[in-house]
Queue: 2 jobs
Job 1
Amino acid sequence: MEEYLLLMRLDILTKENQPSPEQMQEYMKMYRDWVGGIAAQGKFVKGVGLSTEGRVAHTDGVVTDGPFAELKESLAGFIIVKAESFEEALVMAKDCPILGGMGNSVEVRKVQQNGNR
């Protein structure tokens, strides 16, 4: 089995896309259940949520604040899963409850082992 990174992005700017506190609690339960289902199959490796605060270091030595207000999508977190194929990892991603939110997305990337690309 290979490892795949599922990057979750949320629309943090569009006011009408922001959940109420009650909706957020329900979404978090759905998310925990989704991750729990992956873990129950022995395919969950690890994952973390990310804060909305950040800084970006550029090649010219300049450091800027982030995420940037002009970008609607913000990286909210990620999980690493085990899957037999890219397609299996994509099926897991397509079941992610954050996709129920307008403007949200889940990107799937294969984790390269031993420096191989």
Job 2
Amino acid sequence: MNEVVTSNSIQSRRILVIDDEEANLLLLRTLLEREGYANVRYLSDPTKAVEELIDFEPHLILLDLMMPQLDGYQLLEAFRRQASPDRFLPVLVLTADKTIEARRRALALGAKDFLSKPFDVIEIGLRIANLLETQILYERLEVRRSSDRE
């Protein structure tokens, strides 16, 4: 039973974008709409991110690191505390911080991918699709595992 992951199933996934800069949110909105993603929420206030995570249950999070009040590192820690152990929730970090320390720290805290701003719009589109495809395949695997246990 090898089902192909279709572009429609990828585009129907829920995406949460967290960035305090309105210009970045506008750029990501334009990119995601062009790629056919319709189920996207945009958040400029990082203090509302955990609440949005619980309410929206995204399949992917696009996260800035450098934000006031709560930075992306603190949010990665909070997301990890909220996450169900059997759920795969990829986080793609998008940041202007190009240091190896930022990259290592974000990945160590659970980010699944990392891009430095300014980013290539084609590359980010491909990375988003790849992470969502992986997330879909993980869900399918979990469904099979649970049916095998029954």
